[in-house]
Specification:
The chain is mainly α. Helices cover 76% and strands 0% of the residues. The chain contains 10 helices and no strands. It is globular, with a radius of gyration of 18 Å. The two termini are 32 Å apart.
């Protein structure tokens, strides 16, 4: 995530992080369904309108890094070195995301997501949005000659690699296996 430079931007970022941290703590302590938006706002000492100026929904509070992940994925395409291969660049970014999401202390968060229909649905819509953003970046890349269909397919595979690896006992081995298939599919396309 880009570090805010001005005082106002730093204060906004700090408020956003305070809200997200407070929400996650409350959700884990009391259960996602037992905590309302007003509870989070009160505990974070912000107005409900302030909360909604930072987060579009209650579900978005759980996925506070969503925009950052999406941006990092597209930047893996757009900011790679002139002769850097695409699939290794994407793999590197997915590995970083999986490390973040499988770090110590994250298991309760993913258990909460798995137990909530609303959070599972939000996560699925988020993955589809990430895949579409990634596909758009791939399609727009002048150095890539694959069709739009191939770009959309690979984008979905990459996003699914993140989800599948995160859920395994050995995420690194899963990523190795998955990205071998992605690399082969990309070469065929």
């Amino acid at each position: 995530m880009t570090v805010p430079t001005g005082r106002r931007e730093r204060k906004k970022a700090a408020t956003r992080q305070k809200i997200a941290d407070t929400a996650l703590r409350l959700f884990l302590e009391r259960g996602y369904d037992a905590v309302g938006i007003r509870d989070v706002a009160a505990e974070a000492d912000v107005a409900v309108t302030t909360l909604f100026s930072h987060f579009a929904s209650k579900e978005a509070l759980v996925f506070d890094q969503d925009d950052n992940f999406e941006q990092r994925l597209t930047q893996a395409v757009t900011n790679r070195a002139p002769h850097e291969s695409l699939i290794p660049a994407l793999r590197h970014e997915i590995q970083a995301m999986v490390r973040h999401c499988t770090a110590d202390g994250t298991a309760p968060v993913y258990r909460m997501i798995d137990e909530s229909r609303a959070l599972r649905e939000y996560e699925e819509s988020m993955r589809l949005r990430h895949a579409e953003s990634l596909a758009t970046a791939l399609i727009a890349d002048p150095d890539l000659s694959q069709s739009a269909t191939a770009c959309r397919t690979i984008a979905r595979f990459v996003i699914d690699a993140y989800s599948l690896a995160r859920e395994t006992a050995d995420p690194q081995a899963a990523l190795d296996e998955i990205f071998q298939m992605i690399e082969a599919a990309w070469e065929v396309a």
